Amino acid sequence: MRESETLDVDQLRADVVNLAYAHGRMVGTPGHVQAREYILGRIQQVALDPYAHGAYEFAYPAGEIKLTNVLARLPGVRRSLPPILIAAHYDTCGPLPGADDNASAIAIALDMVAPLRERQLHRDVIFAFFDAEEPPHFLKPTMGSTYYYQNQRDEPIHCAVVLDLLGHDVPIPEYEDMLYVMGMESDADFAGVIEDTPLPDKLRVAAVPNRYIGDMSDHHVFRTHGRPYLFFSCGQWEHYHLPTDTPEKLNYAKMRRISEYLVDVVAAVSSEPLIGPFEGYDSTPHELGLMKKHAGALAAQLGLMLESQSDLQRFVETLVMRYGLLTDR
Fold first, then answer.
1. Number of domains in the chain
2. Per-residue pLDDT tens over the stretch 90-103
3. Which residues pair with 207 in a beta bridge?
């Protein structure tokens, strides 16, 4: 663990509390503007550079509503290399607090800035706080990540690391510390990254092929354009898209561990060539290996094997049906 863990947890909690308004952050509302202003203040506090043209705010129209992606940059040593992008959306699905969805991921992204700066990565890291991830913009041209990729992007992206729903305990008894990653199949080099990156105590990682679940979040546009991506989430839970998604229900110690782990993942990804093939190799052995390591006992408890691709799919489908995990919206 990094030093000053208590202070880091306090800042994680403060960021969530300061974003989880009872009236929500739905696009076109005062809470939406308030959230954007808070994020702008925090990215300047942690001394991130403007993304491009001296600006952090990149507005675009969606009918009569103005939407805004908030983009910032952490310079790397070799500025000509394609950057890594870390993404977390900031809108909510209606007038809801959205503590887990998605203030938790925003807080973790901000927490990653200082340790990534200390690493002095070769590549720039773009911190993207995307607008309009939730319906009615979800998977539409006005979705913040889609609009960014097609209209606001200044350079090719080496890899997108997308964060969503990262604040809660997974609702499986004895597996509350689980973290899910999708997208390992998007580049063969990710197998080594996910398998070799050390995990903090009390954190386990399970890899799930994206095709079993669907494009749940802002990784959609990177996947459909053939770019390497990793999507990290704790999945859905009982407070998903409800007024009860409030700050006191989150596990800030788990968020702290996820932040530490993701810093190591981003540092590892920065050194990988990621030259493909994109979704052109069989990642099943690696996903099975991780699932056996971290959830093999659960599979056995459910009377399921983990020896083949069909076994893995059956296990994931069983978890979705029994616990409501990782379901598409």
1. 1
2. 999 999 999 999 99
3. 181
